[in-house]
Sequence to fold (263 residues):
Amino acid sequence: MTELHQRILTGVVMIVAALGALWLGGAAFWGLVSLLAVMMMIEWAQMAKAVRWQIWLSAALAAGLMAAAWSFTDEGLVSSFPDRLIAQMADLAGISAILLAVISFRARLGVGLLYAVFPAVALVFIRQQPGQGLMLALWTLMIVWATDIGAYFAGRAIGGPKLAPGLSPNKTWAGLIGGMASAGLVGAAISSAGGLPVLCWVAGAPLAVAAQIGDLFESWLKRRSGVKDSGSLLPGHGGVMDRLDGVVPVAMLVAAAVAVGML
Fold:
């Protein structure tokens, strides 16, 4: 099996699992997102060269924060009181991050806890919105997937000048433009089919830029750590962070727009 075929097969399996959990919502979606957040935290800690007890402590705190997010769902804070949810999760995550940094003597682990948990909570927040939560969460994820696919194939087919050779030598400006075009078209199509707000029709391309920035940030982390991939769990894709790096900024931006009433 070629690398491209392996990449496609793994991608299809991941998308099917994500769509199934997204459709079910509730505990199924929260469970999958929580698992991914914990795995991202483990990969972050491993790249930071943390020892075993620091890795397990990091994972336990990530799981605890996601459990807190679910308890807020039961209390109705997610959809009815988004300001209280944001304030309470920010306080909990901030305290947990400081605690982790102090106990482990690694400030980088505290930052990683926020990196892993905030986008996961954002996705739960988006999915739990009354009425259009399902379509809005689908739109959010599809924009990132469309960006990745469009950038990958446009970059391979066209090539050309490098986007950020110091961070990711394979990324090109053609790939960025291809990702923006793909995300714009897919975002508009889902917005039309799902009756989403007008802003969603035009936000695909700008969010594709955010997704690419998230990708470049993770590339910088890997270069700093001296690794090619964040992990080896996903054949053809690397680690969980390698596949969710674009979701991190996009999910938080969409959740912020929902919280302030823009979506």
About this structure: The first strand starts at residue 162 and ends at 164. The first helix runs from residue 3 to 24. The mean pLDDT is 89. Residues 3-259 form one domain.
